[in-house]
Amino acid sequence: MIRPCSPRNAPLRHAIRAAALGLGVACAGLPPTLALAAPASQSQQRDWNIPAGPLAAALDQLARQGGLNLSFDATSLRGKTTQGVQGRHDSAQALQILLRGSDVQVQQESDKSFLLLPALDVGDALQLGATSISSNRLGETTEHSGSYTTGAVTIGKTPQSIRHTPQSVTVVTRQRIDDQNITNLTNLLEQTPGVVVNLTDSERVQYFSRGYQIDAIQYDGATVVQSSGGGSFIQSDSAILDRAEVLRGATGMLRGAGNPSGTVNLVRKRPTYEFQGEGSVTLGTWDAQRYVADLSGPLTETGNVRGRVIAVHDEKDHFQQSRQERKDVLYGVMAFDLDDSTTLTTGLEWTQLDATGAWGNLPADYDGSPLPFGRSTYLGADWNRWNRSNLQTFAELEHRFDNDWTLKLMAQRTHFELDDNGFKQTYFTRATGTANPTRNPYLMSYQVTEGDGGESLQNNLSATLNGPFDLLGRTHELMLGVERIRNDSYASATNNVQSGVFDIRTWDPKTSLANPNINITAHPVRTRTTQEGAYATWRISLADPLTAIIGARANWYDYEQENNTKASGKFSVDNEIVPYAALIYDLNENFSTYASYTEIFNPQTNTDAAGSVLEPVTGEAYETGIKGEFYEGRLNTSLAFFRIYQVGNALDDLSGPNPCLPNYTSGYCKVAAGKNHSQGFELEISGEVLPGWNVTGGYTYNTTEYLKDTTGNNGNPIRTTDPKRMLRLFTSYRLPGELQAWTVGGGVQAQSDIYNRSGSAEASQSGYAVYNAMVNYRFNDNYSLQLNANNLFDKKYYRQVAPTPTGYYWGDPRNVSVTLRGTF
Predict the structure, then answer these.
(1) Which of 443, 522, 582, 747 could form a disulfide with 493 if both were Cys (CB 3.0 to 4.6 A apart)?
(2) How far apart are CA 244 and CA 362, in angstroms?
(3) How does it sit in the membrane (predicted)?
(4) Interior CA angle at 115 toward 112 and 121, to 5°?
């Protein structure tokens, strides 16, 4: 609260200093005092969640949350703003973070009393010297932090430090995105520990963690089912991102239905309180051109209305001949401070991608080994196309109550869409029978498929309420939430024509196959899913070093599929409960141990002999480990051990008939009897090891096994194309002294061998390492030039293998890019 001021409220020296600084000696001009009756020790760390906004309002929140007395002149703070403070800090550190960039200095008067003064140059007598508070702690926003780590992650709905998040989590920061010249989601996840990128084809990409598919992406905490977008999904462009947060393991509390793999939360840039601009031009191998413009700042004098707009144009050829792609991105976001406690944020993200595409890639021989085609070989036609657009609109309303509780309402609408006649691709299979009597592995039967439309419309509504409360003399935190996700997907209506048999050794993408006219007569298939969830999480402070977290989520899931206006499938899952539990123990000021148990469920459409839909597949994950936090959170380390079980996968019911009519015209009905597991450990580091030296990286060891499946699978890995061992590492160093304009960096992506077997045919790739390098030169505070080199030693390797006519994918050859970046 604000107390009326009087000469007794502050020592005489405060009044003298205030007068000398021009603050005035009248009662109306003396420093008011913000106070909270309940005291709190300044040195005790706690979790803060004070958003960006007017500085005076933020200081009021800090005083109430921390039990502090803050004395300052309100008029001197008029028009000043703050980026807020999140994460775990003591009171003095939190105060210093709030005051960054405000030209306000701090005089500490007692354990919980501070005087704030303008930082005017009035002589040594007013310099605070040793009594000044300094902190290098990071907030959750990574833009301009210069760091490879963050002070807090928001993937758990509320800000928490990495150290006090009881699961493995990786944050790819803005600085790292810039240093490695990461441009899209696939590039980003290829650099993330424990994540495997799988290509269905050139445009449909899947992500796996701990043996299971990551089947949904979050945008600012709102879930989007990537797989529902199918061939119309476009990977998010990195230019709009502040950071990406990757949480591994089962995450049913965060997103409802899915696999026990993990969740990716893409956190977009937001408007800033001060004007800033950035532009960059990148030129690179294969005629790559990329242009980015980013403008942000206040739109009113007080800064209560702010905006940001980002535009991207990206075009390039490919190392495979005749392949090209062109992408345009527009992102706009507005923030409105409706009052000191309420902020409304609205925005949109639009992306158009036109690509030649490759529906499959290079062939295997009959034994599964690769046929000898070079990296530039493209077995499609130059008139192939895979054109689509994505549009996402969102609105978020956040209200901060006087008791430190926060209510957040969010609505998001996502539209993935193939352009009209935007899909036309060649596809080939090995010629058989009379077309290939000698079993020539180079003879392929070509077909051309054209698609019309194909889209996914997803609507997400959510509300969360969280805040602290006192019980039995300790402060705890409670989070309540509800979420509704509706997804309407329309598979593309396609027709195809057979185009003959070709010897692919003489294939020419420009001349071998004429572009046929195809009349599309098929009807699209519509699939609708609706998920609803209600959840609660209680973060219990059992003792100063010991925190328990318990929670549960109730889920409802509806599925319906229609083909040519006739219902062909429908089922529901009601009140599926997903529990969550964790313990965190602070060993000392740097290390914490933790143990967590998480669950998730995944509905399935298979039916049993009675015609009933099988119960959902369930996944449960156990994880324990130790996390370290050093240099006020600027360096984070972790060691995690995990085990995951997935139970209830569909297996053939061998006791029933074959075919099992009417649901299966061929094959057996199904039973939910499968079981598999995944286990391993991860070691990770991120942040500043020494001044100017940033490091990020992780080592993963992961084994998986079918415990109960078809006879041929029992005892085998779930995915033989996932390496057991993976290393992801990147580091950069800003040179000291006269060379401080230079920053150099390098990294490596290494993995063990993989294989893919089908019958007696086997495709394989031995272990390999790919090295990258970066050099950056800063001309001044505003301009820099950066050189990136990927696959520095031009390693030849297959990033993906399969013993099929389209299953081999070369990794990118050596490529370089040069980026000129300017800020103002």
Answers:
(1) 522
(2) 32
(3) Multi-pass membrane protein
(4) 145
**Helix, coil or strand: residue 433:** helix
Provide DSSP, 147-170.
Answer: -SS-S-B-TTSS-B-STT-SS-EE
CA dist 788 and 746 (Å) reads 9
Q: Is the dihedral of CA 703, 709, 710, 711 positive or negative?
A: positive
* Owner of token pair 């005749």: 322
Q: How far is CA 636 from CA 357, 450, 587, 623, 632, in A?
A: 40, 50, 15, 18, 10
Shortest CA distance to 816 belongs to which of 53, 41, 219, 287?
Answer: 287
Residue 711 sits in which domain range?
268-445+452-823
- Could you give the CA distance from residue 89 to residue 138 in angstroms, rounded to a whole number? 10
Strands (E), 662-814: 670-690, 693-708, 725-734, 742-751, 754-758, 761-765, 768-778, 783-790, 798-800, 809-810
Structure tokens at 316: 């390039």
pLDDT digits over 112-139, tens only? 778 887 765 433 333 333 334 444 568 8
Q: For residue range 334-351, list pLDDT tens digits in order.
A: 999 999 899 999 999 999
CB 233 within 8 A of CB 185: no
Of 131, 158, 192, which marks where a domain is finished?
A: 131
CATH of residue 114's domain is: 3.55.50.30
Q: Which residue has the tokens 């977008």?
A: 229
Alpha helical stretches, state H, 208-285: 226-229, 252-255
Beta-bridge mates of residue 160 = 153
How far is it, in rounded angstroms, from Cα 388 to Cα 16?
67
Q: Which tokens sit at 400?
A: 């901060």
Span between the terminal Cα atoms of the chain, in Å: 39
Residue with tokens 């062939």: 363
Q: Is 18 helix (H, G, I), strand (E, B) or coil?
A: helix
Task: Tell me, yes or no, whether 147 lies in a domain.
Answer: no
* Domain contains 36: yes
The string of pLDDT tens digits covering residues 639-650 is 999 999 999 999
In angstroms, the Cα distances linking 683 to 73, 168, 702 are 49, 10, 12
Question: Cβ neighbours of residue 147 under 8 Å, at least 6 residues apart?
Answer: 138, 173, 175, 634, 687, 688, 694
The answer to whether the beta carbons of residues 53 and 335 sit under 8 Å apart is: no
Rg (CA), the chain: 29
Which residue is it, tokens 């549960």?
A: 552
CB 745 within 8 A of CB 777: no
For 86-90, 201-205, 703-707, which range has the lowest pLDDT when averaged over its residues?
86-90
- Cross-strand pairs, 494: 451
CA dihedral 39, 41, 44, 47 (to 10 degrees): 30
Is 260 part of any domain? no
701: helix, strand or coil: strand
What does the block give as tokens for 276?
């800033």
Helix axes 55-66, 91-98, angle to 10 degrees: 170
Residue 664, φ and ψ in degrees, nearest 5: -130, 115
Choosing from 106, 131, 156, the residue where a domain stops is 131
CATH number of the domain where residue 567 is located: 2.40.170.20
Count: domains in the chain: 2
**C-alpha neighbours within 13 Å on the C-beta side of residue 13:** 5
pLDDT tens profile 146-198 = 999 999 999 988 899 999 999 999 999 999 999 999 999 999 999 999 999 99
- Closest listed residue to residue 235, CA positions, set 264, 278, 195: 264
Does the pLDDT value for residue 615 go beyond 70?
yes
Across 691-697, average pLDDT: 96
Helix H segments across 116-214? 174-179, 185-190
Q: Classify residue 746: in a domain, yes or no.
A: yes
**What is residue 395's three-state secondary structure?**
strand
Which of 202-206, 305-309, 391-395, 488-492 has the lowest average pLDDT?
488-492
Q: Are 795 and 260 in contact (CB under 8 A)?
A: no
